[in-house]
Known about the structure:
alpha+beta
Amino acid sequence: MQKDFEKTIVFVGDLLKLDHVGSQATIHGRIKSLIKIGYIVLITQENDARQKRVMPTPLAYSRLKSLSRCLLG
């Protein structure tokens, strides 16, 4: 079953605008770290190579499921 948040399209630029989370440099560093550990991948858009879509990996979904089970008891 697909959740609502799974339908949301998020681009790197969207994340970089979240200045309440941290500076652009900090967010960019976090994105690179998440790519390195296998939680996200960046998908280049066909119509504009400057836009990169952020996609969670199966590993990220697995970790989210595991954390959810911990929170639920």
